[in-house]
Amino acid sequence: MADAVAAGPAKAAGRGPWRLVWDQLWAKGSARFGLVTVAVLVLAAALAGPLSSLGGWSPEEFDKRAVDAYLGGTPKGDFGGISTRHWLGVEPTTGRDLFARVLHGGQVSLLIAFTATVVVVVTGTLAGIAAGYFGGRTDSVLSRLMDLTMSFPSLIFMIAMMSVAEDVNRILLITLVIGLFTWPGIARVVRGQTLSLKHREYVEAAKVGGARSWRILTREILPNVSGPVIAYTTLLIPGMIATEAALSYLGVGVRPPTSSWGQMIAESIKYYETDPTYFLIPTVFLFLAVLAFTLLGDALRDILDPRGGRS
Amino acid sequence: MILYLGRRLVGVAGILLAICAITFTIFYLLPNDPAAAACGKTCSPERLADVKAAMGLDKSVWQQFADYLTGIFAGRDYGTGPSAVHCGFPCLGYSYEYSLPVWDLLTDRLPVSISLAIGSAVLWLLLGLGAGVTSALRKGGFTDRTLMVLSVGAASLPVYFTSIMLIWGVVRTAGWLPYPAYHAFTEDPVEWASNLLLPWIALALLYAAMYARQSRNSMIEAMAEPYIRTARAKGLPPRTVTVKHGLRSAMTPILTIFGMDLGGLLAGAVITESIFGLPGVGRLFYDGLARSDQPVILGVTLLAAFFIVVANLLVDLLYAFVDPRVRY
After folding, report:
1. Which residues contact B32 (CB under 8 A, 6 or more apart)?
2. In angstroms, what separates the C-alpha of B12 from chain A's closest C-alpha?
3. Which of A95, A240, A277, B87 could serve as a FRET partner for A24 with CA atoms 20 to 30 Å apart?
4. What keywords are annotated for this sequence in UniProt (chain B) (predicted)?
5. How many CB atoms lie within 10 A of CB B188?
6. Contact present, A278 and A78 (Cβ < 8 Å)
7. Residues contacting residue B256 through CB under 8 Å, at least 6 positions apart
8. A107-304 maps to CATH 1.10.3720.10
9. Class assignment of domain B103-322?
10. Where are the domains of chain A?
């Protein structure tokens, strides 16, 4: 990958280009914070099962002893019932363990965000490269399609589609619906990049050398748009997490018993005065995830996209 | 310019038609039956057929779409005989839930949504551009770093969290402001503003944070342009250089996003409107979903699309004024 970069001073230093990116990333405080937080959250979500059994509770397990039936089911103890039994406290009324729930919710939130991002990046990159490289009719059809998609009131439309579709896999649906409206952004970036790359000498050289379109696209163009694509991808993730949370918050996202951060916030919002801890815990996780991915994406953009932050 | 405008208007009409067709198709293909919903629980098959005929649902999808389009331009009648209801000129359908044409519902709710969107837009532009430009001019300094930390944090806060915290802090605990209720601007401007202040802040904070980041980048880029050096070399006062030469060209990318954001918000502030209980278009949409009131859902979607498309058009036209390099 990125042969052009590897041939530069990177090789002289005896390091690969990605190693250089890593070094620059690690040198920056905010990026380091983002990276570590992302790693911790992703690990915690991936290991939600084992971690919550470490805490001793599964996400759907009721614990009536942790809530006070005489006080309308509010958790016993201060700060939403945070104790050695329940590390992040419990849900009012049911007494379900918040540590287990927030990890499992994170699993769903991050899963949706990541798969939606993959859908968007693959579609967007393909459409962008095709539009930029082939030009002509392909470009005008794809560009019109991008304009049309961007003119859709996306949140309104997503809500409408999510609310009327019944009896389907909601995680899959939410991924596709988010993907459907988000691909034009990255497609435009890639298209612009491809337009500027396609008349470079090395592309011309490959053409003269008899390379077919497919080879030029995958070996010459794709590696050179990968920098901005990676930066843009990281910056897409926080938006995806927030969109999923918004949809679930409005009650059209994932549905119980599946939980996600947005869905937990929606349920906890009516307790924000009686049990603020319950409201704060999923919010803090959501906030940290969005913040960490934004910081990481900002730093990656500064490093990988020459136009972004260096000027 | 006239030619360009003409071409763009045709494009706008095309996009709106396409959105109309796509939205219509999706709702037509959906399993739920608006006639059954309108008819109620105790509905005989004959009566259901009557309702279907009155709503025009017994016709083919093409006929229905054609009727819908005709209705937008010429108005139409639902049903026949004494029970017929007339739906006047921009007929975006008839809501059997409210027993009112969708257009009347929209125009009723629109002032709320417009007040919310415009007010918060003013606020976020002031805050966002102010912070962004200040940061850019003090690049790397303490002010810059503080503002950027604040804005990246604020951009990561979900709007419902900010809203709830504002309600809790300002309304419930401090009691400085009443729980927001909508008062028309024409009746009492002070009540109007003081009631909308919290929703404005909640909505503006998120956008201000994004605009601060965006305008900082774009301002730094603009100030690095050679013509800024030329302007300085000519001996222009720093303020003129910053405002007339730097800010003006830094505005172009901001204007693009602003158009999209404002257009999207005019009918799309669903979360903010529902948290603060404001009877706007977003709220109408949200209630419409709960009752599967399809004419309302379709109407709001089209209106929202209309605002986005028109806002984009206006932005492109404004370019010529903001950026002298743009000519049509």
Report:
1. A164, B292, B294
2. 10
3. A240
4. Cell membrane, Membrane, Transmembrane, Transmembrane helix, Transport
5. 12
6. no
7. B315
8. yes
9. mainly alpha
10. 107-304
Q: Least CA distance to B298: which residue of chain A?
A: A160
Rounded distance, CA B244 to CA B236, Å?
Answer: 10
Among candidates B19, B108, B25, B20, which has minimal Cα distance to B71?
B20
SS3 labels along B55-88: HCCCCCHHHHHHHHHHHHHHCEEECCHHHCEEEC
* Structure token digits, residue A177: 């619906």
Nearest CA in chain A to B271: A250
Q: Does B26 touch chain A (CB under 8 A)?
A: yes
- Give which of B156, B210, B216 to mutate to test A binding, by max A Cβ within 10 Å: B156
Name the H helices within chain B: 2-29, 34-39, 45-55, 61-74, 102-137, 142-155, 159-166, 189-223, 226-233, 238-240, 248-266, 270-276, 281-290, 294-322
ipTM: 0.82
pTM > 0.90: no
CA B162, chain centre distance (Å): 19
Give B249-290 pLDDT, tens digit per residue.
Answer: 888 888 888 888 888 888 778 888 888 888 889 889 888 887
The size of chain A, in residues, is 311
Q: Where exactly are the structural domains of chain B? A: 34-91, 103-322
**Neighboring chain A residues of B135 at a CB cutoff of 8 Å:** none
**B170 touching A (Cβ < 8 Å):** no
